[in-house]
Amino acid sequence: MDRIIEKKKGFQLKKHGPYAAAALLIVALVLWMLLGNHASTLRISTQDVTIGNVERAEFKDYVRTNGQVLPIQVVQIAPEEGGIVREKVAEEGAMVKKGDVIVRLSNSNLDLQILNAEAELAEKQNMLRNTQVAMQQDRLNNQTEQAQTEMDTQRKRRNYEQSQNLYDQKLISREDYLQAKEDFELSQKKRQLIGSRLRQDSIYRTVQMDQMEDNLQAMRKNVVLVRQRKDKLEVRSAIDGELGLLDVELGQSITPGQKIGQINDLSDYKVQAEIDEHYIDRVRQGLTATFARGNTLFRLQVRKVYPEVRQGKFRCDFTFQGPRPENIRTGQTYYIDLELGQPEQAVIIPRGTFFQTTGGQWIFVLDKSGEKAYRRNIRIGRQNPQHYEVLEGLEPGEQVITSGYEAFKDNEILILTSH
Fold first, then answer.
1. Distance (Å, whole) CA 302 – CA 318
2. Contact residues for 17 (Cβ-Cβ < 8 A; gap 6+)
3. Partners of 191 in the beta sheet?
4. Which residues contact 135 (CB under 8 A, 6 or more apart)?
5. Helices (DSSP H) in 232-345: which residue ranges?
6. DSSP secondary structure string, 241-268?
7. 206 phi-psi bin (left φ>0, alpha ψ -120 to 50, beta other)
8. Burial code of 102-113, b = ≥16 C-beta within 10 A, e = fewer?
9. What phi and psi, each to the nearest 5 degrees, are found at residue 170?
10. 269-311 pLDDT, tens digit each
11. 320: Cα within 13 Å, side-chain hemisphere
12. How far is CA 287 from CA 42, 179, 325, in A?
């Protein structure tokens, strides 16, 4: 007879053990995820990194750049007239005075233009003289005609008056009287017409003579200008200075306005620097700068800021304020500190190559023991050649790693060892 087997109640290791173990494993994993520290760590030696202090100190707002000494003014040499180089009077590096001849040119076409202009002027002068002679002759003829008309009018007036008396005395016929009267009236009208014509001729001759004189004067000016163009075949210095460049050879053809050299004004100097475009909105005319030469500090002032940016930099001209260095020469290089603002108290850290990796957004901060460094987000403000201004994330007294992060930029905790 079969026996009924009763089911066992409660926990059975063989049956429920695997499920319990799996549950415990899940709980342990959850607790480890919630409570454990999973930040990636890296062990490094303190000898491989640079550690800097976070301080509250005076932050000097300036930028350092290289400046090159240049003449205060450079005048380009560009002849107004073209031609063939006939003679080089001065050589590069020579000191010249204003008006000194530097290069002589020759231009046969210009010589021909001068001859043509002079010939045309002579022809115009001859035409004016001939016209003047003709007008003078016409004036004499008109005056003679006017005199004859006046005399004829007087005679006919006498004849008319006599005829009128005789007609009143019934000594001549009425026809003779009327004929004498008509001759006299005709002579008067003729005299008036001739007088009016002479006045018009006089006005016309005056206007014509004035026009011809103006044309002749213009011709004279043209000849003078053409002769002056010949004078400009001698290329002269516009200022006192040093002939810094002269790029011509004998026999070379030069076109008008072609740059052939330059003259350096050595009465003073300027310093030209290239500055990172990051500062273009902050650099303006009037800012001061300094540089050291030996044991002496020299002062500069921003004279001009060039607006164009090339290869991430813009140019800036400085002029000296006060004494110049001894034996200053064109082409020398000075290390300039350009002041962008007044010094202020701020939280600062030393400059370092960590900035190239983090962009100033985070940094490794040492704990109080100095044995570990933790990654922390920060915000960098202004910077100068020595320090960064920290706006958020760091407190004075802390220490940070300022050297490069290329080897451990993906880690969040660094363990520092002494070896």
1. 5
2. none
3. none
4. 205, 208, 209
5. none
6. EEEEEE---TT-EE-TT---EEEEEEEE
7. alpha
8. bbebebeebeee
9. 65, 30
10. 999 999 988 889 989 999 999 999 888 999 999 999 999 999 9
11. 19
12. 47, 106, 20
Mean pLDDT of 334-363: 90
What is d(CA 296, CA 325) in angstroms, rounded to the nearest whole number? 9
Please write the tens of the pLDDT for every residue from 350-365: 999 999 888 889 999 9
**Where do we find the tokens 């901060």?**
365
H or E segment to which residue 156 belongs: helix 108-168
Model pLDDT for residues 238-259, shown as the tens digit of each residue: 999 999 888 889 999 989 989 9
**Contact 327/320 with Cβ under 8 angstroms?**
no
Cα end-to-end span (Å), the chain: 83
Express each pLDDT in 89-113 by its tens digit: 988 889 999 999 999 998 888 888 8
Residue 317 clears pLDDT 80, i.e. is over it:
yes
β-bridge mates for residue 317, sequence order: 272, 304
